[in-house]
Queue: 2 jobs
Job 1
Amino acid sequence: MKKSLSKRSERTDEKKSTGFVATGNSKTNSLKKTADDYPAKPLPLFDEDGKVKNAINISQDTTNIKQAEIALLESNERYKNLIACLPVAFYTTDEQGIITLYNEAAAKLWARHPQIGKDKWCGSWKIFEADGVTEVPLDKCPMAVCLKEKRKVIADTHFIVERPDGTRRSFIPFAEPIYDANWKVTGAVNTLIDVTESKRAEIANAKLAAIVQFSEDAIVSKTTKGIVTSWNPSAQKLFGYTAEEMIGQPITKIIPADRIHEESMILAKIKRGEIVDHFETKRLTKNGNQLDISLTISPIKNSEGKIIGASKIARDITDYTKVRKQIEESEKRLRLVIEAGAMGTFDWNIEEDEFIYSERFAHIFGYDNAENLTRQSFVDAIHPDDLPVRIKAHEEAFITGNLFYEVRVIWQDKSLHWVKTEGKLVFENNAPVRMYGTALDITEQKTYADKLEKEVKERTAELTALNTSFEKAEVIGKMGNYTWNLVTNKVTWSKNMYAVYGVDSKTFEPVLENILKLIHPDDLKHVRRNMEEGIKTGVLYPVNYRIIANGKIKDIAGSGSLGTNDRGEKIMIGLVQDITEKRKNEILIIEANKELAEKNAALEKTNRELEQFARIASHDLQEPLRKIQTFSNMLKGKVGNRAVIESYLERISVSAERMQTLVRDVLNYSRTSHLEEKFEAVDLNNIIANAKHDFELLIEEKHAVIKYKNLPTVKGIPLLFSQLFSNLISNALKFSSKKPVIQISSSKATDAEVRQHLQLDSQKKYHHIVFKDNGIGFEEEYAEQIFAIFQRLHGRQDYSGTGIGLALVKKIVEKHEGIITATGKPNKGARFDIYLPA
């Protein structure tokens, strides 16, 4: 320490102590020596007879010892007062960790006054790690680690102190051992930096970031010249461009050429401070597609109220995508209190006008040489315009006992610096006798504070505009957000959350019990499971569920994330959206797509039939016509030859009959697709009985046998089933070279059988009907071909027919959502397996 004396006193003696210079003063030097300063101890003198004959009195001058004791007491008092003036929490312990000293800032942080000489390690009631849950035993706190491991401890994260009243504060510790002259640890000092407010800011920013993270709305900001300055993930999802591709580019990059004029109109409104609300237009994606979107654009102002840009929310109104807003994550702005070592200290003896200062104190006021400075030297360094501030602060200090002021100081190199001075007065008999204090260079802090204040004003203006846009976006997107404190179980809803859930904000209390009552009973179980697993694992997956509000069912989509608040308590931040209309639209689209697919399939089938009909017209139907025409022409030259005429007329009749059969079969085949009769119960036993009656003469002629028993009753169109079995029986009777035997049987199709046929629905049950004959059969390679229209495996001269019968059979089976397969061997007969829904 350095000291300065007024002209009324001069230096007489110097004793050094830790951090300070103990100096005598005029009052000390003028002490008069009294008998008390010469303690005497008389010694008796004896004669030869042992009698006292005299005495010797030896005195010792203890003046210097007394002065040293007084100086030591004053030094300790100065040290304590300096610690008390520190603006940060500060305390010391001995080598055993017993608290020996702490200042009022520490007591304020702890919200308690620990007992000096009794409390150990720290004055905190309880200490927790940064998660707010894991308690740190006091014997493992940073101060304990510092003393036990004899090293400096600077935490890389913050701790949480819980006060006796349950409130919490966040702090960062800086613990350092104290050594004696022999480098033996005699104790430790710990400085606690209170960072509570910064942590609260982090939580607030995290909440905003979480809300934006789940937004599915494209949120873009741009300058007043239309240059993109931000581009959120939903914008990338919507337009296909990444942020790197768009930031710094003109917004016209995504505007169609025929709509470029809209940007000029929008920027003009923004510059006038107007909001562009629900502007429906078209915009381009990266792949060149045009989207129908709705724009909400708001001006962004700085702290001076000047419009500096615009914020745009784009919503795809084609697909009703979820609306979200982008809020840029605020930068963390926190400056820790300058370490204790960066402070200068002073001790002003008011009575003697003696001013003692540390070397650091001199440097803070711009003096490189700390020698021979007076109190006035430091006053002279203060900027003239700020001297009134110092004078007023001193006048108040002599009343309140506390000194505080901030002034500008002009260093010797003419540079300007801000200095904060704090002090405390000591009174004796109501008169100020001494002042202890500290000085801190706050130039960086002031510069930063001014810059921060300006940025905060600008950011506040931006956030205000974004918040307004976000509230509107929530309404547009039918969205709401919530915060759920998992410790206190308190739930906080946004304004539009009530509208999403269809409840009155004046009467509905958003507590967990009431909220769960709104969820549809069928969805409650999986909603609870999603919540419980999310709390347990820390990962909350998106979930869709239904709610019942005022008798109406709504479809809701929910998502969220987990975090902690400024008290270290676990919280859940989430976003919900009413997707009722979207789900209805999705169902309509699915049904429309299904109907379209069915119509496309029917159209393709019709096209194939048209191709087949075209072939009929070009070949099969023309063949009998050509014969009729040929034989008719031949008749012209054979008028007198009756036998030839009759032969030609017979041939003409056969061709005409064949053409008539072809036309009839084609009509039957085509009508099958358009038959709209309702399905009804059809007893296949009756169908076979009727078919036997129809073929009675042919059966007798060929001595045919038809065996069937206990055939099922199925759902279908009776007429079509009559055609189906009539064609099968007709084929069996027609394509036979010996006594026909026809066997028809039925059974329940097994699951294995159903799985073998991909065309069948594995969730349904089917009847398995087997139709077998002992006719001429066919090669296995023709098993599929025989069902094609006009496909004949045998010549017409051998067996009659048009080639339509089996095609009609297959078409009837498929119309009844079944399948038919065929197997056979030449001269071994044919087998048809039919599967129909049970």
Job 2
Amino acid sequence: MVVALSLMVLVGMAIVAPAGADEMVMTQGVPLPKREGSPFIASGLSSASAQFVAVDDYQTEEGDAARLAIHRISDGVLVRTIANPSPGGTTQPRLDGQSIIQLSESTYQGGIDTLTTTDVDSGSAAILSFDAGGNVVGYGPGWVLTCVAEGSTDNCPLRLRTAAGVNTLVGVVVNYSKKISTADGDETRAVVSTPSGDQWAINTITGSAHQLAYPEARTVAGGRAFWATDEFVDGEHRNRLHWRNLDGTDDGSVLVNAPSYEYDFRAFGDRVALLRVPEDGDFGHQELRPVNLTTGVLEPRVAHSITGLRSLADGKVVLALSDTSSGRIAVVGDDDQPPRTVFTRQPIDWKVDKLKLSGGQLMSTWQEARDADQELYFTTAQSPQPWSTTGPLGITGTVDHKAVDKAQYSGGVVLTDASGSGSSDDRTYKLAWPGGTRTLKSAFGAPALGNGGTLIGRNVDAGGWVKSIEVQSTESAEVKASLPGNRAFALDRTWIWSFSADGTILNGMDTASSAIRQHAFPQACSGRRLQVVDTSALVTCDDTAAFVLDLTTTSGSWAVPLVSGDLAVRLGGGYVTWVHYVSSGDRSVPVVKVASLLPGHETRTYGPARGLSLQPGPTLAPDDAGLPTMAYVDSRHQARLLDLSWTGSVAPQVALARVSPAVSAKPNANATFTFAGGDNESQVTYSVAYRTHGPSGFSAWVEPDAWSKLAGPSVTRKVASGTTVCFRVRAQDDFGRSSAWSASNCSTSPLDDRRLSAYGTVTRDSSASAMESTLSVMRKKGASLVRRGQRFHGVYVYAWRGPNEGSVKVYANTTYLGTISLKSSRSGYVRVLVKSSTARYADVRLVSSSIYRARIDGIALMP
């Protein structure tokens, strides 16, 4: 039997893989909703000059080099995007004036020996090559300062090399571990510190040097050097801010109204401002407050919610701000104007970490879990909604970080680590399911939650660092079995599977029926792992070989066609999937292979997928309920969904489900719900559920014990007057595989005319042909019949038609719904439906709208 259960309409199917093909066209799965990154994460301010600002570009493919996006400060326009091969490292590109400057190696591991200066606007580049033997202590557009240490010390003489051909010692000895400072946009000056603490200015065009008359300064602004010293005043440590002109004249100082641990002074106009944590903020969202050089008072802040900052040579400051929904880059000057937005940052897509799919419900964790939560997030495969921390049936995902890292999910059950930090020898775990929770202990590792969430296996300390596996009912904690801890095992719904002592027999036991199954597995297999889904088992051996067993038989297996390097083999309902690597230019690209378990083992390829890095590595998530869908994480760390109905699922199905009658001719009649499975069904039973609809709306679904494990083909239930009963059915086999619930089929019972209140000229007559031998006759225009306080979407009116009949208007309270004309050349009994545009809770009113009579037998209300 082949079942095509599709949870959603998916576009784009993969190309069928020819045997042995490595390079091929592939398609991606349908993207699941994304989560947008916060402004803190999106700050990424890398460098800036008076003309341009460079920010990190986070939207990269896995394996791609990081990138920097360069925007013009005057108008925010993106000028160009460049590679950033060493984020935060020596070879990271840096803006300086009109140029991008970057150090690099001309040969792999040969040492840094190249400086590239690129004009931002034109892209034209000049290359300066130099000896790789020295240490680079400073560089700027078209120049580099290097030194070679003398003997065993860190001290070395400086040498200047320029694109103009200068190659000269500058006569200053420095400590090569200390970097120099440069003024942005000023190619003529670099400041270095000698081992004795003297400051020297070096002309980076000529190589000439002269000593400066001030100590090592943190900040240079407006032609002055600024530095701070600690001073104990009135029982507390304060900052004394000093300054001196760069030519050595005009000293000054002021005691700053701030504690000494706040010392991050930044150039701002021709003075400095203090970057500090406000009383209402945190380290990642700071404020900038100018210092009054006369009084030392911190002036009102000129910017807040700062996540990054760069001072410019023109006295302005470029800011990364988190004061908007996605963050922005702004510039502010010492001119009493608020920060001007250069450009608004686009939200980044948070990266999926772990992903699980069970019964059409998805659970995920995220690599950037910084939103004060460390939470699990959920969505559905069918018509996915934005990720939410409220799981299926009200399960909450709020847990601590350790719980997120170890979380498991299946069948609506969530397993989390409730121990927090501490030893892993005997930890406490929490189970949560719709309507209940409990905790359990597990030694030497986390418990294993079975497919469907019915069973859980916890590790029990058997003494001497030996463990056994105790299999429990998830909800009741009833012990179902005890297994040796050194054997591979799997839990699938109510079934427990494990290998015999010699590893040659796979044994299965159904905890619900005590049924036993066995399958021979004579292959030599070390480091084995076991997965079971429905009637298939997957045995992996040292992660290098994998075999699929058909558990409806007692022997035989199919070797999954893995090649060297393939990994992450997973079993789904009717298919097996794994990560494979294909060649693309000079790199390998991870892709998802999916092979059907039907004869022929049709195989398709999807991707690219994540899998170039060890952490978090590739992520494949087959639906453990056996549905023909799976999720995976793509090369941009986003979740995608695949429709795998082409693999030929072998789960049972419901081929027929119908109810009779849909609308009864009289009150309190029986409704019969008939159902049947697909072709060639064997050992399949059915479960039927119902719910009622009345003035209070729909009730919850009810699954009577007597309607579980039915052989078929029907059930019958009385439908009370004025209500609707809806039925649904699903099929299951003795392996615990289930179809989805069928669509709802409903039967409605009418209200007799005597259940309607009469107003105006209405007579109550008798008729043997009426539903309860009575009818109500509205004899004058404006007469009415009313049923109060009903919830409905449509009204069936039971009446007689004929040449002497009139017409009836139908209202919900005072809202007109429609008119029924009963005048006809032929006489007879009719049932006419009048629909409302929306479901309503209202009084149902039938009003005679003509001078002729209207004979009414009753109404039926449709949900």
